[in-house]
């Protein structure tokens, strides 16, 4: 068995190491899927002495953090924001490493630019005093209100991460504890983000600035718990970064670390069955391969794992359960290689209607393609010359849309025209005559490539009824030795959360 001590931590005090033993030394473990949760779990288990094999459906590792390379352009197909750098330091610190051992970071300035569709434009920057002046310009007293809001956000982040994220609480009895009541005092455990933000800011644009990060959680202001005000501490106080080469550099770093620890990786092997055998499991693939294991961890889509890879009597949740969940949005993505520059766009750019309620309604209340979308533009070539040929720009547009939305070539083409028109009208960037490479990705692609339930881009949304212990179990109640990791489990959606999920799942294996 492998153990680790608090003295080994390099960041965040004793949070960087296990609290005890992981009883998997010498065991064979197969991890299905290589998203960030799977890659993280693999590293922790291999470090504890297990023989770990990661079996990936697609041609490259990384799950949704795939990379598209074509005609000299390199696109991050999935996550593109590097937030919460402390989590990555903590992860690599567990293994005696630092992120800089694998990749370099650039802090973005501005963090992002916002174009409001009434012609207004604003940059959020690393300097808090500048941001306070911007807020004050919209609403008298909003600068001081931002200070108060961020004080609350920082408190929520520090308490929430230490006692409710890094400390796993998968069962109801884990919350019936005097420490929980003590630590949760002052946290916004009830209520929604819309009400919380409006307590500090009246101006709708300031409310939008404080709420845009909810998209990363797969929610909307009226369905996301106010607890997630902690994301503003992440945004304003911790900074927005870019790893050289894009988020794919993080995937490569985790794979390299895993190989140093002895993890084996297999690609192009779609798993079709997780079958029990005497004393363990047989993980079978579409191409006739079979991987034997003492334990199995699934980082594949949770619903797909249960509904497609297990027999009915081994499933924890019914089909009705999965159909009744609230799913995070899917996305319409348009990857573009463009001649020339794309001023005035920044590395991260948001284009927002002055009232975005209708767009959220088309995602959660009345699913349909939006007429007046809120969307995100990413231009990594503003920061990184390696992602586009000389004299060209690398750009993708991401529009959150409802999961399970009808997705046809005709609808995509119609929406493409709407998006290109909207970009030109609201940012003064005309792209049509300069596009030299183009590829779209949408609902059907998320379902086909990632076996994603209803084509969601992220998984289950963080609603009050789908947060903390109300998310699916990380340890199967029906199959002894089967575990789950990734965004469906706690702590939930987002690259940092999936890294933390990997540690929690590793600590659960073999219990």
Largest sheet: 7 strands, mixed
CATH architecture of the domain at 6-63 and 86-104 and 245-324 and 474-508: 3-Layer(bba) Sandwich
Flag low-confidence runs. Answer: 1-19
Cα distance, first to last residue? 13 Å
Structural class based on helices, strands and sheet pairing: alpha/beta
**Radius of gyration of CA atoms, rounded to a whole number:** 22 Å
How many extended strands?
Answer: 19
Q: Which CATH class of the domain at 6-63 and 86-104 and 245-324 and 474-508 is shown? A: Alpha Beta
Let me know the average pLDDT. Answer: 90
Biased composition (Basic and acidic residues): 8-20
Pathway: Carotenoid biosynthesis
Pfam family, one: Amino_oxidase
GO molecular function: oxidoreductase activity
How does the SSE layout of this entry go?
Elements: E1 28-32, H1 36-47, E2 51-55, E3 67-70, E4 73-76, H2 85-94, E5 105-107, E6 112-116, E7 121-124, H3 128-138, H4 142-165, H5 178-184, H6 193-198, H7 204-211, H8 230-238, E8 241-243, H9 248-261, E9 264-266, E10 271-277, E11 280-285, E12 290-293, E13 295-298, H10 302-309, H11 319-323, E14 330-339, E15 348-352, H12 357-364, E16 375-378, E17 392-401, H13 409-427, E18 435-441, H14 443-450, E19 482-484, H15 495-508
Parallel strand pairs: 1-2, 1-13, 2-9, 6-15, 13-19
Antiparallel strand pairs: 3-4, 5-8, 6-7, 10-11, 11-12, 14-17, 14-18, 15-16, 16-17
Keywords: Carotenoid biosynthesis, Oxidoreductase
Domain Amine oxidase: 37-509
Pfam families: Amino_oxidase
């Amino acid at each position: 068995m492998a153990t680790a001590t608090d003295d080994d931590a390099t960041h965040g005090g004793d949070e960087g190491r296990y609290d005890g033993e992981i009883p998997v030394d010498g065991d064979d473990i197969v991890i299905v899927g290589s998203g960030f949760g799977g890659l993280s779990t693999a590293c922790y288990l291999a470090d504890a002495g297990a023989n770990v094999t990661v079996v990936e459906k697609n041609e490259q590792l990384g799950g949704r953090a795939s990379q598209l390379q074509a005609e000299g352009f390199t696109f991050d197909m999935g996550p593109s924001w590097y937030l919460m750098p402390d989590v990555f330091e903590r992860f690599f610190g567990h293994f005696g490493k630092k992120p800089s051992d694998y990749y370099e970071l650039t802090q973005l300035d501005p963090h992002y630019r916002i174009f409001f569709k009434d012609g207004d434009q604003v940059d959020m920057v690393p300097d808090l005093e500048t941001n306070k002046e911007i807020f004050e310009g919209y609403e008298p007293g909003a600068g001081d209100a931002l200070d108060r809001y961020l004080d609350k956000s920082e408190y929520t982040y520090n308490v929430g991460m230490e006692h409710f994220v890094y400390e796993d609480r998968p069962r109801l009895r884990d919350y019936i504890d005097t420490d929980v009541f003590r630590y949760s005092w002052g946290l916004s455990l009830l209520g929604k983000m819309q009400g919380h933000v409006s307590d500090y800011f009246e101006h709708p644009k300031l409310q939008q600035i404080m709420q845009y990060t909810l998209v990363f959680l797969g929610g909307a202001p009226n369905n996301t718990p106010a607890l997630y005000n902690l994301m503003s501490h992440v945004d304003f106080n911790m900074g927005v970064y870019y790893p050289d080469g894009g988020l794919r550099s993080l995937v490569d770093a985790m794979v390299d670390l895993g190989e140093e620890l002895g993890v084996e990786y297999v690609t192009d092997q779609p798993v079709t069955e997780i079958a029990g055998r005497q004393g363990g499991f047989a993980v079978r693939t579409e191409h006739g391969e079979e991987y034997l294991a003492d334990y199995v961890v699934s980082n594949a889509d949770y619903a797909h794992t249960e509904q497609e890879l297990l027999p009915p009597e081994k499933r924890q949740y019914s089909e009705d359960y999965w159909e009744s969940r609230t799913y995070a949005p899917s996305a319409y993505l348009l990857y573009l290689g463009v001649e020339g520059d794309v001023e005035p766009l920044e590395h991260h750019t948001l284009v927002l209607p002055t009232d975005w309620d209708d767009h959220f309604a088309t995602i959660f209340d009345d699913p349909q393609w939006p007429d007046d979308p809120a969307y995100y533009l990413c231009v990594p070539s503003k920061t990184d010359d390696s992602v586009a040929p000389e004299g060209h720009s690398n750009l993708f547009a991401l529009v959150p849309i409802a999961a399970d939305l009808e997705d046809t070539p005709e609808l995509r083409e119609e929406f493409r025209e709407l998006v290109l028109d909207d970009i030109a009208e609201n940012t003064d960037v005309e792209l049509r005559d300069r596009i030299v490479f183009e590829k779209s990705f949408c609902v059907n692609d998320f379902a086909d490539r990632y076996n994603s339930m209803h084509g969601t881009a992220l998984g289950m949304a963080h609603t009050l009824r789908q947060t903390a212990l109300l998310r699916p179990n990380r340890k199967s109640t029906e199959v002894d030795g089967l575990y789950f990791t990734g965004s469906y489990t706690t702590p939930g959606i987002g690259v940092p959360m999936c890294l933390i999920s990997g540690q929690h799942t590793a600590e659960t294996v073999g219990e």
